[in-house]
Fold each of these.
Amino acid sequence: MSVRSEARTQDAAAEGAPGYRARHTLPLRVEALRQWRRRRTLVMGGVLAALPFVLVIAFAVGGGPSDDRGGGGRITPIDVATASGANFAVTCLFVSAGFLLVVPVALFCGDTVASEASWSSLRYLLAAPVPRWRLLWSKLVVALAFSLAAIVLLPLTALAVGTAAYGWGPLQLPTGGELGASPLPRLALATGYVFVSQLVTAGLAFWLSTRTDAPLGAVGGAVGLTIAGNVLDAVTALGDWREFLPAHWQFAWLDALQPQLEWGGMVRGAAVSASCALVLFALSFRGFARKDITS
Amino acid sequence: MRIRLPGRRGRLFAGAAALLVAVGAGTWSATVSEGPPEVRRTDRVLRMPGAAIDTSYFTAGGPGRRPAVLLGHGFGGSKEDVRPQAERLAGAGYAVLTWSARGFGASGGRIGLNDPAHEGKDVSRLVDWLAARPEVRLDAAGDPRVGVTGASYGGAAALLAAGYDRRVDAIAPLITYWDLGEALFPQDVFKKLWAGVFFGAGAVPGTAASGPAAGASPAGSEAGSAAGSAARSRAAAGCGRFQPELCAMYERVAVAGRPDTAARTLLERRSPAAVAGRIKVPALIVQGQADSLFPLDQADAMARTIAGNGAPVSVDWAAGGHDGGLREQGRIEDRVRTWFDRHLKDDRKADTGPAFRIARTGGLDTTDGEVLLRGAAAGRYPGLGGSRREQYALTGPEQRFANPAGGAPPALSSLPGFGGPLAAFGTGLSVDFPGQHARFDSAPVARDLRITGSPTVRVRVRSTAEDGSAVLFGKVYDVGPDGRQQVLPGQLAAPVRVTGVREGRTLTLTLPAVDHAVAAGHRLRLVLAATDLGYATPAQPATYTAALEGPLAVPLAPEVATGEGGLPWWVWGLPPVALAVAGALLADGRRRSRGPVPVPDPELAGVPLRITGLTKRYAKGSDRYAVRDLSFEVRQGQVLGLLGPNGAGKTTTLRMLMGLIRPDAGEVRVFGHAVRPGAPVLSRVGAFVEGAGFLPHLSGQANLELYWRSTGRPAQDAHLTEALEIAGLGDALERAVRTYSQGMRQRLALAQAMLGLPDLLILDEPTNGLDPPQIREMREVMIRYAAAGRTVIVSSHLLSEVEQSCTHLVVMDRGRLVQAGPVAEITGGGDTLLVTLDGPADDPAAGKVAALEGVASVVRTDEGLLVRLDGATPAGLIAELVRLDLPVTGAGPHRRLEDAFLTLIGGPA
């Protein structure tokens, strides 16, 4: 086996231009540079970095969260948003995890291939030649890295802004009490789970991106399907079947902020999300490998 | 004699009518169609001494004898409350009998608080009745196999039944009392709020007409309806349906504010505690952790006594209770059923669960906001003392605090029926008024601690009251590190009346039994309060003094371990399945797309391009071909023009050449290597096809640099400077590509195609958008490029371009090859003349010329007539034209490819 594959690489070396090696095409650094300077990347980063400031101003103008407890009866982290920097970071995550954080993930993963197609640069990359699996791999890794950066950026900014505004302190729990130890490991866990739970959106967006030449179609489609998942999850008549909807677990990261760390919801959510994403990624690679590029 | 209200008479009449029907027509039955198996319900009113008892009998499935279950209801409710559970039990293979106890629902008689002489005997008569049923399994004649269960009032009935009737085989009392005297008068303190709710509910004359809705949880509805009834009872004073002696006892105690011996004895005699030694059947004891009416110590007494009698006992501390509703209805119902499966059906495989189980809160369920529960279990019930004790030193000086006159304002621990699921998180209300309590704090606990049982503490108490007594409420708070946030576990307080403490006395206080986790860094706080809203306290003002005599002894039961969260199988199953599916998808995709890799042909290593039999249909299975059976070859050093009108298939061919689309048949070989998507040999090909493709946000320079880095090849192989020279963009290279004109993009794209000086350069319509000087320059670039031994393929429909730069031609039309060969061969010799006329040439004129001898063809163009000679000489032709009276202004040789091309593909002539 190894002998054969070695023979093949030698062939390939002879076949291609000097210095050409399929594995070295479209390095991650290059793809990251290609995406980095895009306006949408900067706008997205700007929006996420600005949100904590907007919330600080909102709390300052509105007089703090505890003045008007919502009548819904559900306890949310917003109730203790201004208790400390860590609490403020959790609040920012809470208000944005449902929708705002879906957008960068859908954007980075949905736009990546489709926009190349719409610029016609895809065919030049493929003819360079960047092997198709290599192209998707680089794009997927970079898109996921950008998504992760976006998701981490928000709580990080919020932590900094919140600490400046409300001071450093232990994490107050909305249910009463506080987390004794440093809030950072729990915050990191929560953020990490938010990213994992968004993998399914990433998978959807990436798959759509390989199917269409319209970047907005891929991004919008992924966001739309995510919303459809939320709607389905609201149909309580589905009963236990809802457990297989990734949207069902989108707030499971709050378990990381309970007095006793609760793993159940996050493990389930991660299993559903990662499994869906895995299949969707495989579908993307499979479809793209056989696709006729007409863009 | 009380006045009879009209409603009461009406109800009696209804009861009598029901009895008539029952007697006259035998029984009337209703079938309940709630899923298979079908449950049959039979309602009967059974006449018993002093009362008519309203019953429902449930069976399901076929004939055959089965064990029976008696299912009691909660205080203030009726048999309707337990109907759903009865139907489910019947479906599980039991004959289930529910009844409304005396004084409740449609049953007659007076409430005797499970009076052995009345309610107790009623249950025995129900057992008699079951023994006569043909469906019920018998242990002996007149002795059915029967279990008794129920919550609260019904649970006590179960305990009493086991005590008074030897035929009962198993019981499952839920959230109930062992000693009602101790429950309502704990440590000689009157639990006035709960007692009021209790007696108020029974004192309402209209209970039968307004029974709580069926289906609500028995405990919840009991508390709820009791509280609601209490409000109504203010209007309807009196004893309602209570036995007069009970009523009198309650009124006496309520007025006095403290129980007397007679009251205590009366209630004790009617409690299961009175028959403690006779309860010897397997008992599943479920008690609520948020229950200020029947706290955990009631269950503890039950469990110790019954286990001491030698019967198997399981203790289950459930979430909720009378204060919070029984929040685990489904789980407890299942557990009761398996308990009966084991002990009534003798099913040895039935898992009755651990001997001791505690429902612990694991936080909130983020999907629906409910509190998550998980079970902690142990093989042995340790009792309220725990399996071991730890001492926590408390600090605090001797403290004086006041019992205010009239006992107001009272401290607050819990309100009857008002706990809520969040009590466990400490969001419940608890208030201690300053000056009315003493408090003693521990140091922050060093590590996480879980209290399981009743802590105890030794204190020295003094009182200034005249009778030398004091009423104290002991509470243990969990105080957060900031010293402000405090949680009262279970919202429970332990009352105690101490006497003879005028001079001071040391006593051991037993604090509320709880299961509560105290996080490291938190403190324990002992509070001794003089008042509590739920209890009657002395109205005479007094000053109490309390001082510590020892540490707080905290019971622990570390062996009670929280089980795994119980993740469903799919949590671990799903990812591997997804991995397998993903793997299969990829493997299948690879198998289909790869096919056998064609062997390189060494003989063709020097041939830049050979296309054989290339075919591509527009859509799979369609009959329309984009390219059909195309074959040609390009040799080194050639500049090949690929020629054809729009839609001839040129671009499709080039895309197949670049591995972008997959041919349906035939193959493309570049330097002997078959082209597949991403074939390495493509690195020797530079291409510009169908316009430029750049990242609009990057500069021209950055685009080229990043493109080259994308190929992964060494930077020095790029020959970037040469390529940029060709592009000739100057300063514009630093601007973002989105600001470029069409021509600038075009030139940048050509530069990109030439990066790395590829051996084969493919240019599709390269002169689009270029101005004439640039077109000429482009032409020279191509010729120079090929002169260096490389090969260029140019596709165009602007034929004059191709004519001037190409050495060879391939002419395509409608997907097919029309002609291939050197340019000169295709354009032919000097036998084409362009005849220009004065004025536009018309068809008749062209026809006349075509008819001349020695003329092969005539094509009318904008400039004039294009005449291809076949034997005639130019001079002869001109003479003939003049003879035809055509206004000839000139004639000259014409060798332009365009014309040759038009004639080849049968253009508009």
Note: Chain B has four domains: 6-353, 388-562, 602-825, 828-904.
Amino acid sequence: MSGYMYPNEITLYWSVLIVLYPYITGLVAGAFILASLERVFRVEAVKPTYRLALLTAMSFLLVAPLPLLFHLGQPLRCWEMYFTPHSTSAMAMFGYVYLWYLMAVLSFEIWLDYRREIVLRSQSSKGLLRLVYTIMSLGSSNVSERSLRIDDRVGWIVTLVGIPSAFLLHGYVGFIFGSLKANPWWSSPLTPVVFIFSAMVSGIAAVTLIYMAVTRLRREPIDMRCVDTVAMYLFYIFIIDFSLEMLDLVHRIYEADESFRSLDFLVHTRLFFSQIVLQILLGTLAPLILLFLTQIVKLPEIARKRIYVFSGCMILIGVFAMRWNVVIGGQLFSKSFLGYTTYKVGLVTHEGLLVAVGLSLLPLFFLWVLLMLLPPWSEAGDRQSAAAD
Amino acid sequence: MNITRRHILLLLPAAAVAWKSMLAGTPEDSPNYNMSEHWWGMLIDISKCIGCGNCVRACQTENDLPDGFFRTWVERYHRSNWSLENPEVISPDGGKEGFPSVPDDPSGEYFFVPKMCNHCADSPCTQVCPVGATFISPDGVVLIDQRYCMGCGYCVQACPYGCRYIHPTKKVADKCTLCYHRITKGLTTACCEACPTGARQLADLKNPKDPIHEFLKTHTVQVLKPQLATGAKTFYNDLDGSVR
């Protein structure tokens, strides 16, 4: 600690788990937006990632509330958010937005999209798997052409509703921070918008990496037309995201209000590595330049693949650093603007590094289970791809 | 009757005890307390504060607070003669045990600023609580229902004055209650009672007979961070521009 902190400010209350929470919900929202590219905007080239994006979104969404639960002082009282929500609280919306997104959007869309396979598998598989698929079919066994057409139509509508829902899910996370007038590092109407675009960037990068890794593990050829198209969209959205973040930064520097000196000092000292090096240089400028290269120079396939993998990893690190800088950075300075504290991540505490790493890996486990149960490359998927070709 | 020095020596302590009792008020039963008749605030006269830390100790004892966390604390400001922007502020252990002595020939000005919950009428902490565990009572006191609080910490982030913390053992939010258990019985707060100079005074803004009204009329009174429009009800007399 240096300078003067109010005595109650010395302890940081929002830990690495609260960093993880917007990061994970961002991946959910971004993955869903990628899925909607194919479904709503009819970008046929990205079809191979469509189902994978949905399953990725689902895997991460299942884990999204866990960091919050681990963080709560009284986790058993979390149900109060559902039963007695406080109407003026941005956070009170979490339960409803989460449930809406989980049940009315993602689960429903995945179910509609996979219903035919689920029904067929419930008839062809044996033992426990048969039971699992029978439960998943929810008693529906009609796979006639007409019912599948209805599924397709309803699925389209659900995706259409899902786009603003994805924006709502992550925009509201940004609003939780952006609406706090007590904290000038967070308080900005741009915060929710920056959160949405950085979410799209991280989600698309994550699905691209997962697609490339899973395809390689299956010893199948990577659909370069698909990956190139995804990279193109990633690049354009990334430009918007970067512009918004820079607008926020330039605005703060030019306006230079009462908090500026304190925040400027923070960025040049305690946040220098995570903000300047990780978030801006390595996590934003490096992948932006590389992705730009793929747009203007005709690079060989292997070079493009490497660029996509490297850029994807850098983007994920950069967006995590951005969440870190927002959540932790916003608590490192005193609201008196006269002092600074430090944050040390515990290793085995209930909000420590091990829990954070575990929660980060858990979605990958869920994804593996979902890929086993509902393979996106199933017969029907191939049939659809073939039909599209 | 001749009043001798002996009489005075006997009467003075008795008068002091009687006066203290009068100041504290006569306790009344809470059931008779009518919330709609009060609108509580606090007056802090900076020019009277001597930084003794009595208020901090009284608060900690009265409310059984954990070490290192404060419902009230005292800061000592050292402001140079010309710069309001970079005061030197200290509050060792919340000012509980007082402060180190000031240099013999000090440059600039030294003064003490007691801090506590501002019991804002438009309190940001109440606004953000996801379950409504934090609320403003009808008599204007910001309170927490600790049997209901989830310990999410959102209110701690939302308070611009650093007045809240998560209780280390109860794992729920905690803050100044304006000694609600006392003021509803007609007593004053523990910090006001312990203050030897009367720098802190509980104020009932709804009571036309409360001396606060006369004081507000005749003094230049300010609240902390007025630009945040929180409706703070902790009023400061003689507040220096350097105080945050």
Note: The mean pLDDT of chain B is 92.
